[in-house]
Amino acid sequence: MNRLFGSVRSRATLGATLVVAVALFVTGAAVLQALRSNLTAEAGTQAEGTARAVASELAARTPYDQLSGLGSKSGPVQVVDEDGNLVAASEDLQRISGTVTDRVEPRPSSPSSSPSASASPSQSAPAREDDEDEDDEDEDEDDEDDDEDTETPRSQSTPEDEESEPSLAPGETGRQTTFSSGAATMDDDTADYRFAAVDVQTHDRGLLTVSAGAPLAAEHSAVRTALTVMLIGFPLLAALVAGMTWVVTGRALRPVAGIREEMAAITASEDLKRRVPEPGTHDEIARLARTTNETLAALETSVERQRRFVADASHELRSPIASLRTQLEVAAAHPELLDLDGAVEDTVRLQHLAADLLLLARLDAGERPVDARVDLAALAREEAAGRTGVTVDAESAEVAGSRGQLARVLGNLLDNGRRHARETISVSVRREGDRAVLAVTDDGDGVAEADRERIFERFVRLDAARSRDDGGAGLGLAIARDVAVRHGGTLTVGAAPSGGALFELRLPLA
Description:
By secondary structure, the protein is of the alpha+beta class.
């Protein structure tokens, strides 16, 4: 298990799948909630329309048994008076819940709703014909009374009724609608309904509340269908995302596998000439491959440099050691033939060579110079003292670094100048901006432009130098440049005005 989820491919696939699963779950829940709310609101609107239609008929003094909304084809409808008594209900209504009352059988009509009070217009027509003019006057007066009754309760509402709907005038339907959810059984068919309750003030039956229901079957069916689609589609979509992520991640990481295999082969064969494959893309993996190849190239150069260094050091050590051994063997057999001066010279040469190799080893290991202040002018005068043909023209310039290593640099430059100069060597120290410049000039033949970088390589000695070599191993200039680089500076060679060589050491001022 740890190995399975230890790969980038597995973790990327798992992460993408989890993100998509969470997003689908949240989206699905939001869609279901929105769908349920919209369909419930639509059912409530339908129920409100039915309730207001019945309320309008009641406001028009329609008898209970002639209300159009109480038919068997309509949804459940209840009419309740202000005392909570059920006065009318839908046909075939057997059971109901979620409304003002759960009664399904209307009670006997109250006096205010008696047949005489709710008689139809046809039954009172003769009386109206006998006294038409008087009735017209009465109607006008009744209208005026109704207007007064309509305004009076609204203007005289008590503090307890401020948050409720204002009192209704006879024949007026309330503006507020109360919604609720419940269930009803009609003709042995039980279903869930959304109920809407509306108040109406009648002329002859007082305040009535009409509750009408609209079925929620469409809402339940739509939600069930959507939920079924989500339960089937979402896992398939998550599986599709997981598969696509697995494939895409595998294709993206395929070059990484090639790089890993090639690096393993390089490690096993120790062949630093090999390189990892570089993909043709321009992404991070391609940059990783290029950086890896650059690292391998630098490592190959470093290893090759170390091999040459060991070979050259062995060669340079072999000559003085062989010479010293020969002299000692001859002295052992013939003491009178001992060349003491030659033995001492070979020993000193070995000592200098060992010191140079040790310093190069420390520089290669990354040894940082000590942080001390060194005055290059004073250092130049000290190194030039006791050397013939050396002139110094120096101004004070302090740099940070190792006094011993900087003295070694200047000493190596002066030794190199002594081997190639005809008569004089000049040393100068000056300031240039934030840099101190130490220049060593000789009046020799100079260094050819093609060899100006080559002479700083280890164990490199030009042919012209070999003829006049007095024991140098070709490490002096290499050591001088390495020390300069470790001190944050540079060491270059050019042509002097007199025609000889001009070595310039540039170091940052302290």
